[in-house]
Structures are given as C-alpha cells and as structure tokens.
Amino acid sequence: MAVVATRGLTKNYHNGGMEVPALRGIDLVLEEGEFTSLAGPSGSGKTTLLNLLGCLDRACDGEILLDGIEVGNLSTTEQARVRREKIGFIFQTYNLIPVLTAFENVELPLVLLRRYSEKEIKERVLRILAEVGLEGLEHRRPGDLSGGQQQRVAIARALVKEPRLVLADEPTANLDSENAKAILDLMRRLNETRGVTFLFSTHDPLVMEYATRLITLRDGRIVKDERR
Amino acid sequence: MFDFYLRLAAKNLFRHKRRTFLTAAAIGVGVVFYLWLDSFLLGFEKDALGNILDHQTAEVQVVTKATVEEDSPELKKTLIPRGLELAKEIALLPGVRAVSPRLFFPLTAGNGLDEIPLLGVGVDPAAEAATFTNARFVKAGRWLEPGQAEAVLGEKVARLLELGVGDTLIVRTRTRMNTVQAFDLTIVGLLATPNPNVNEGWLFLPLDFAGAALATEGTVSQIEVRGPAAKEADRLATRIKTLPGLPPGVVVRTWRESAAALLAMLQAERQYDSLFLLLVIAIAVIGVINAILLASLERVREIGMLKALGMTERQIRWVFVTEGILLGGLGWLFGALMALPMNYWMVEIGYDLEAFLGEMTADFGYAISGRVYGVWNWGTFLAAFFISLLVALVASYFPARKASRLDPAVALRRL
Amino acid sequence: MSFLFKMAWRNIFRQRSRTLLSLLAIAAGVVAVIFSKAWIDGMMASLEGYTIDLTSGHVRLIRPEYRVKERLLSLAYPLGEEGPGYARLVEDLRHLPGVAAATGRIRFGLLLAPLAGEKQLALQGVGAELAAEDRVAHLGRFLRGEGEGRLPLPGRQEILLGKTTLRKLGLKVGDKVNAVFNTSFGSFKIATFRIVGAIASGLMYLDESTAYIPLDVAMNLLELPDAVTEIVVFADRMEKTRELQQTVEAYLRQKGLSYTAIPWTEHNELIAYMEKIKGFYSLIYFAFMVLASFVVFNTMMMIVSERTQEIGMLAALGFAPGGLRRLFLAESLLVACGGSILGVLFGGAVNWILAKVGFDLSAYMETSAPAMMLPPRIYPSFRWADLFFAALLGVVVTVFAAYLPARRAARLHPTEALRTI
C-alpha cells in the first residue's frame, strides 16, 4: 500500500488581497521505502507540499491519503495526533529544543506517544542515538553541539518513533559538503535498514544523487518524475 | 540629538502597543491614586479648617494658661480677668475685623425627663454674629438677643430632647463659686451649621445672661479675634501679646495651634495613605524595569547594529532611558486623564460623608458634615508628572545600562 | 506531564533577569496584598472587637423606642419593666441554644466630682454585672500594666474609672468620688463611691468616658428594680450573629415581648459603613495583584514571540494546541509559585514583625471621639490563612494573566511559526 497518495492537491496563499497559487493540482504517490528528492526553484511549491503532507497546513482542494486514511479535513488536534504518530520532520535549521539535551530531544516524540514504558523509551533513544553516531553526547544541549551533530539529533528525533513518513526540508543546506555527505549517508542507511519512506526538498545536486526517485516541481506542478 | 532619541523611543514603544499600554497603566494607577488622594485630603483639610475657622475658633484666640495646659480645668481657672474690657481693647487694634468674647461652661440641658451634657457658650449676639457665621445657620426661629433667658442650639439635639422653638429648656450647671445653679431658657433658634461639633455639642446663650447666672463678673473664657486673613494671624497675635493691658496667665494663640490636633491627624492620614502609594509605585517600578529589559533583550541584534554603526554605550543607554522616560510620561498622561473626570466629580458633586456615615460624623472627630469636596490643585498634577518621569528614569537606568554593555559581536551573533 | 514541567522549568532559566523581574513583580503584588489586608483587617478587627465586647455584643436587646434616645442615656425605656424581670430574662437567654453569654447593662448619665474641690466631669455610667463583663470583654486585662486595682464587687458602692478620668479629676485608686445623676423618675441624686480600679486600655471610651458600677447597686440607686436599659447577647463566634439574632427573636416572639434584637453589624453607622466597604477592599487587593501581573503578561507575550520557531517545531512533533497552551501555563505556574513563595516569605516576615510592633495611631486620638473604638496603637493582623490567601491570589492572577499569551502560542499556525527565523 502507498504511504502517501494525493489527488488534485491545490493550495493558494492570500497575499495582500491577491490569490497566489502555490500548488496547482498535485497527484503524487509515494510507495513504502522510497527515498525521494523534491527539487525545483524557489517558490515552486516544495515547502508547501511538505507542509501539506506533514499535516502542518490544509489544502484548498484535493485529497491526501496517508496510510490509506484521508487526512485533509482533520481538526488541528487530530492533525497533531497524525503528526505525532506517523510523521517525522527534519529541518534545515535543525529546530532542536534548546533547553533539552540531545537525549531529551529524541525522547520527546516517544513521551508524546505515551505508548512506551520509561525503560523502553530509554533503550530506543540510546539505540538510535548510537545509530546516528552520537554515543557519549547524549547529555549535551544543542548549543554545545556542532551543526552536523545537531542535525543527527534531529534525524534521530524524526526516526525514533518509527514514523511512516519522514519529511525533510533542505536538511543539508546549512552543512558543509563533508557533513552533508555524512548526513545523507546516514539517512540513506536508515532508509535501507528500517525501510522508512523519505521525502526531502533540496537544491543540492549531491542530495539528488542519493535519491531513488527524483521529482521536480515548477510553478506548483510536477514537471518531472523519474525513478532510478 | 535628544529629538532623535525621542522619535526612536516613541517608535519603539509603538512597536509593542499592548506592553506599552500595560506598563503605562501601572504608572497611571499610581498617578490616579496620588492625585485623587491629594485632592480628597486637601479638600477635606480645607473644609475642616474652614469649618473650624468659620464656626469654632477665629484666627487668633486668647485663653488662659489652664485652658491650654489642663485636661479639664475648673471653671474659675479658665476665666480671663477683665475679659470683656480686654476684648474691647483688642477690637481697637489695627487689622482686627471683629472680636467675640465667649464664656464656655459645661452644663446639662434637659426637658424634665431626659437630659444631655452640652457645652454652654455665652456670647455677645452681635459680636458673635460679626466674628462667626453660626448666626447665619439658624434654620428655625432667630438668633439670640442680649439680656434674655434664651438659647440657640443644634436642631438634632433639640429633636433628641423633643423640643422646638418656643419650648423651655432646663439647664443645670455650676457657678464660678462652684455652687449648683439651675435656670430655664427659652429656645429661640435651631442651628444646622456645617460643623458637627457646634451642632451637636454647643448651646448658645446671651453672654450677659450667662455671666449673671454664673457670677463671672466681667470675665470670659475665650476672646476670639477675627483678623484680616489667616496668613496674618501671627502678626496679629504678636500685636495682642504686646497689649499693655494683657492680664498675666493668658495665652494668645493662632488657629494653627488651636487646630493642631486636626492638622496632626491630617498629617498622619497622609502618611498612612502614602504607604499604599508606595506599594503601587514599587509595582510600577518593576513594570518599567521589565518593559525596558524586554525591549533590550528583544533588540539584541539591533543593539549590535547600532554599535556597529558607531554608537557609544552612553548613546545606547540613552536610547533605552528615553524609552523609559517616555513610558513615565505616558503613564502620567493616562493617570491624569483618568484623574480629570474623577476630580471633576469630586469637586463638583463631592463625596457625601453623611450618606456613608449617617449622623455619626461628629463621632469621627472631624469638623465636617455632609459633603466633602475635592479641590483642583494643578501643582499636584505637575508634581505627579515629574515624579512619574523620575521614577521611570531611575527604573530604566539599570536595564538600559545592561543593554548598552552587550558585546556587539555577541549581540549580532545571538539568536 | 512531568516532561511538560521539566521543559517549563528549564525555560524559566533561559533569561534569568527576565524571570527574576517576573518573580519580583509577583512577590511585590503578594506583599502588597499581605500588607494591606493585614493593616485593614487589624484595624477592622480592633474596631469590631472592641465595639462588640464593650457596647454592642453580638446581638443587643433594647426597647425599640430606646434607639433614638440612646444618646440621651435615657432611663425611660428599660427592659424587664413589663413581662419577665431582668433576672428571669437573662437566665432564659443564657439557656437559649447558641448563646455563649448574656448580660444586662444600665447606661446612664453621670457627673463625677471629687469630695473636695470644684472639678467635675460628665461621663457615661454603666451598671453592669462585672464578672460577666470580664468574661466577655476581659476588662481585667486593662487593670494590669498601666492600670491598677480590681473590678467593683456586687452590692458594694464601688466604681471603676479610666486612667484619664482619674487624672482629670486629680484622684487615685482608693479615693472616694461623688456621683451626681438622675434616677429613672427624674429626681436628682448624689451617691459616694469608692474607686477600686483604674482602666488603662488606650481606648477613649474606657479611659475617659465611661464609669462602671455594679449592676445591683445601679438598679437600686437609679430606682430600676430588676430592669436594665439593654441586654447584650454573645454567640461563641461573631460569624454566628445571624443565627443568634434569629434564636433571640424567636424567643421574644414566644414570650410576646416587643423588644428589638440588633445585630452588631447595625450597631452604629461606622460599623455598618465598614461592613459595606469590606467588598471594596477586596477589590483593592485584587487590583494590586492585577497590576503586578502585567509584568508577567508582557514577559510571556515576549517569550511566545521569541519562541515562535520552537513552538512550530513542537507542533510538528505532534504537540496539540492544548499541549502547547499547557506548556506555557506550566511555565507561568512555576514562576507564579516562586514569586508567591518569595512574597509570602518576605511579606509574612515583615507582617509578623509589624503585628508585634504595631502602628502608632495616637495622632488620630486627639480628635477622635469615644464611639471610634480605636486604640492608640493598631496591630496589623497576622494570620496564616491570609498569607495563604495572598499566595493563592498571586498564583491565580498570574496564571490567568499568562493565559492569553499561552493561548496565542497554541493558536500559532505551525507553518508560519516554522517560517519565522
């Protein structure tokens, strides 16, 4: 079954009384385990699409099936539940919670799920932190970590709850090429070992090299969709 | 340059309308409280002193030493030898508008069944009417005539005794020789003055009649001297003190001394109320410090920018202090705007003490009954303005200094 | 939940100076509430306490006509003249449910004069069962310290005077004094009393305007056999006044007596006025706290706008709007508790000292009148319950002030929150 299936997804923004179309009918299906990159110039609608798929925003028209369930018309609280249970986010600016340690940042999604015992949570968090290569740094706060390390924490945080879909918005844009490569290796590895579906927006040709599927957006439409 | 700071500060304050409003509101509440209190107390003071001066004691008073020093001296010790003659001599002094010799003595007045202790006040009807306004507040009947066995007393006291104009009052007292004396007086007038002490405690009767009944032989217990103005009371008192005919054992004092207790009470009242004012100011100060601190935290990058542009620490400090001062001014404006209608109401309509306290006003010891009115005192508005600015300046100085000391590199990097 | 508080707790320390000011503001508000409440309650308690103990009781029984004649200290409207006599009446009252004490008083006009000399003073005489009065008003405490002597004993021609009265008359305990008064028939009488005690209470009412003599002696001299001008009835607590009034009124109806039972709250206009403005004072406490909470409001508003991006991230992680709101409320709750504790510690300590030391009110005394039952030194009240009340008010008002910012955080649109840098 497809992880994501959209049909006729449309989104307009209001800007000073004008309707600015951001997405003009997106039909997209993401299969389980795909490692997809979303390219396109600025303003082509990449972030808008990610926001809609991530239940952070609402579409004007069309439908989104996440795991076969329609999520387009949920209330804000229900949207929050979907995000909590099914979606992991990775951002360009990492967006870690500064007052929490690396361990606590990763722990947070599991605490929110209220599904695991404290012991289980600890095991899972430590395992994923080791997996992303942050052993021994669990108790540092974001301010004491380098950019690459912070993004690793963010990846661990996105993956710790074993989401159906990970959405990454320009995950390597703030990193130098060496760190970017390492992060991409890590994401690719997690994609392969855990079978998690990834969708990331990017400008970076390096990122596109790693992708198994390459979608290009222009003016709110999919203009190219190739699998490798 | 200051003009630039002012514009910048105003714009910055405008960026956070709600915060500016709330902080200024806290200052405003303090200002309103201060202005209201001042108006009320000044009005109260004015009324109370006015009531004392118009009805109880004139600008200068001549009494005996015993009257001043002893708790409840015997009658004979309170009498000024040759009092009546002395009054005439004083009346000839320059600047004296009127003189009223008075004979005070405790008595009980009754209707045959019930009786009530009152203070008998023997007065020369014409002199008393020229010195005090009591004669003008006769609500029923007329004012006294000399030589008659008649009385004028408070309306309420008469009602209590179930007596009216034309009825007979039985009076018991003691003479100068301490012998018991009883006589009947016809009530000729009922008083309702604004001074409750007079209304509820005094019984006026003609001085010549009282003097004969008490065998006081030309002595009186007080000589009340009405001068040209309250301000010149001291000069008038000095003149009386140097009169060659002034008998020994006599004290000449101004209204400030005779009303000392009232003045002390008003002073105390002011102090107690200031405690509350202080609490409000403390809260307002914290509010201003907070507002400036928040502004500086928020504008860390901006501070870095300003430093990068070459502004000195001193100049940056001024940017924030100006903002604080402006907050103070705004707070004062809020307070003054709120105080204006409040004070208008207090001045025009007044505060009805009697509605709250009923007929108990005399028991408060204030020489005031009925309404208390506020006063317009623009000096207080001005004082409040400078206090607001000063408080805001002091409160904003430390957070402003803190803001100015930020390292520009760190400031620009932060966030 | 604990995670929420963990985050809130750490957030508090992100900007220490800002948090410190919020704490100070709340503490200042709490201190203001504690002080003003202690001061006002202390004054009220003193005023009400003395009024109840010395004059009004919790409920006072008089003939309805007496009310307007009280100032005259008239003897024309006694209780016990018709129907059951005083002894019977007071005995019945004492056995009514909820009655802790009941005693009669004869108030009458009195002129005191030393046996030799010309001084004289007009006072209020009170014929009273002094043992009973001592139980309700603890008169005995005023005979210690500055005061001296003992209470007059029943059946003896003894009198208890105030320290100031004695000074004015130039007399001392042990001396004799002449009392001049009118009997209930209007005839003029003189009696000589031995002064057995001097009261030093600081109250004008006791120290210079009242003289106590035994009730039986008063009945005898004033020709009021088995009758009094009023009976004061006490419940065990002043809060039970209403019930007491009803009980007493039911008794009067049952006996067919047309006496009035006046609760202390209506004793005089001053007391009635004080009762009226109590609500207004609560408003002042509240206003203090609201002013202080502005600081918290401003700070929380700024915190929310500062953490917009973080709020967006939390939303992306699946925090529902309710959770976000709770996160900020938790933060304000912690600050509120901290500030309130600080305020209670400081305000409570100073209040405790002030309650011991008192405030000097003597400036008021000079001009005041006996009915104003104010001692020259007022002791602000110190009650744990009030400290708790102030702290609670601090927490509630603060959290309430933080509600709007917290709601704003909850309502931030996640995509917009994330966009802000």
Structural class of chain C: alpha+beta
Overall pLDDT score of chain B? 84
N-to-C terminal Cα separation of chain B, in Å?
30 Å
pLDDT < 50 runs, ≥5 residues of chain B = 358-363
Q: If you compute it from the alpha carbons, what radius of gyration of chain C comes out, rounded to the nearest whole angstrom?
A: 30 Å
Number of strands of chain B: 12
User: What is the residue-mean pLDDT of chain C, rounded to a whole number?
Assistant: 88
How would you describe the shape of chain B?
Answer: elongated
Q: What ranges of chain C have pLDDT less than 50 throughout 5 or more consecutive residues?
A: none
Q: From the structure provided, what is the oligomeric state, counting identical versus distinct chains?
A: heterotrimer
Beta-strand residue percentage of chain B: 15-25%
How many angstroms separate the termini of chain C? 29 Å
- The count of strands of chain C amounts to 12
Tell me, briefly, the overall form of chain C: elongated
Count up the domains of chain B: 2
List the secondary-structure elements of chain C in sequence, H or E. HHEHHEEHEEHEEHEHEHEHHHEHEHH
Q: In this structure, how is the largest beta sheet of chain C organized?
A: 10 strands, mixed
What is the number of helical segments of chain C per DSSP (H or I, 4+ residues)?
A: 15
How many strands, what sense, and barrel or not for the largest sheet of chain B? 6 strands, mixed, barrel
